[in-house]
Amino acid sequence: MWVFGYGSLLWNPGFEYEEKSIATLPGWHRSFCMRSIHHRGTVDSPGLVLALDELAGATCQGLALSVTPERREATLDYLRERELISSAYLEKKLPVTLADGREVVAVTYVIDPHHVQYCHLDVEEQAQIIAEAVGGRGPNTEYLHNTASHLGELGITDPELDWLSQRVRELTTV
């Protein structure tokens, strides 16, 4: 079993894996399009977390992590508890291409575009929210900066995330 990570799974997978590879997922893009009411915000003051938003012609680079057959059920249980906490994500099995050219199907969590937590905000509004929000797993800023830095360490460029990270640093050091 393969799992595709594009946000916090890059730096905090929370499960054992036997192989990891940079991978590309076609037809989706990484976006702060999900209001976070548990992990990085609250119901009264939602934060924002990344989700995969479907978009024709888009691609998203992230990490594919392989899980041994004996760890499959425990990993799925863990991921479902973590990712499906509010039902804003949908669990899908999607084709990804690994850096070495192999094509595999990966468990992937994507946004439900009909869910109340789905949103489209301009990047400045995203920065303002992320700079202030705090949830059960900590500050929204930590989530953003960890994701942006780990993408950079992997050699994955995401100009929008880099801009957001810089802008949020400006907002939080004033």
What's this, in brief?
The protein has 174 residues and is an alpha+beta fold.
Tell me the distance between the termini. Answer: 45 Å
Order of helices and strands: EEEHEEHEEHH
The level 1 CATH classification is Alpha Beta
Strand tally, please? 7
Organism: Shimia abyssi
EC number: 4.3.2.7
InterPro entries: ChaC, GGCT-like, GGCT-like_sf
Keywords: Lyase
Question: What does this 3D model show about the protein?
Answer:
By secondary structure, the chain is α+β, with helices and mostly antiparallel strands. The protein has one domain (2-172): Hypothetical upf0131 protein ytfp (Roll). The protein contains four helices and seven strands. Strands 1-3-2-4-5 form a five-stranded mixed barrel. The protein is globular, with a radius of gyration of 15 Å. The termini are far apart. One of its GO terms (molecular function) is glutathione specific gamma-glutamylcyclotransferase activity. It comes from Shimia abyssi. This is glutathione-specific gamma-glutamylcyclotransferase. Keywords: Lyase.
List keywords for this structure.
Hypothetical upf0131 protein ytfp; alpha+beta; two-stranded antiparallel ribbon; 4 helices; 174 residues
Question: How does the SSE layout of this entry go?
Answer:
Blueprint: E1 2-5, E2 19-36, E3 47-66, H1 72-83, E4 89-98, E5 103-111, H2 123-132, E6 134-135, E7 138-139, H3 140-154, H4 159-172
Parallel strand pairs: 1-5
Antiparallel strand pairs: 1-3, 2-3, 2-4, 4-5, 6-7
Helix pairs in contact: 2-4, 3-4
Protein name: glutathione-specific gamma-glutamylcyclotransferase
GO molecular function, one term: glutathione specific gamma-glutamylcyclotransferase activity
GO cellular component, one term: cytoplasm
